[in-house]
Amino acid sequence: MAVKWIILCFVGILLLSFGYSYARASHTKTEPASQNWATARRDSAGIAPDPVRLRSTAIIQIYAAPTYGWRGLVAVHPWIIFKREGETAYTRYDVISWGSTDVVRRNYALPDGHWFGSKPKLLVDHRGAQAEAMIPNIVAAIKRYPYPHTYHAWPGPNSNTFMAHIGREVPDLQLDMPSNAIGKDYRGITNPIGLPPSGRGVQVSVLGLLGVTLGVEEGVEVNVLGLNLGIDFKNPALRLPFVGRVGFDNPQNAGL
Q: Which InterPro entries does its entry note (predicted)?
């Protein structure tokens, strides 16, 4: 009986979360209904700081935006940008499934560009000496990504798996990936236990399909078939499938 109620509650949460995600997407949609992937907005969202004006400042930012089409109701696509002190342009890295057998792409799109019509949200912002010190570790983590020629939208490895890998390798990023970043919990079958995407805590996950995460940034999160449900205690919020975060934002990103 208890198992039955747990299943019913989980299904109810899924339905409510999907309904909320659909309503939010409909309310915030700015693209015409006739828009397609080839004509969708890819211009700058005006979020990234001016790299020329801040030439003397090292900067690291991580973004996530709803994926294109119906998948944007359930998942996001993340990417990282950075520039060293003295540089006047950003370098961007993300994982893209089309166009090449090498899925890790450098400067595929604008640093803070709309992702096929969707405005990105800032997840991480570090500047100055701390950012300068992290950039070599980020570059090394990108080179060590274990799936440079493999992409599976579900359950992974995909673009969220890539970003989670960087977060584990560089815990000073304090990366808190949203619960609808499907693929962030993907782990190889021979490596089911390790660090969470924030790099601080512990995660048990079987191919991103079933697992539990206890993390400083994540709080407590349960993953069933790639759908995550949890509670963030550090910055109180619910972590819901399809929706992501509902509650207080990470203070480091407030007002940015």
A: DUF3750
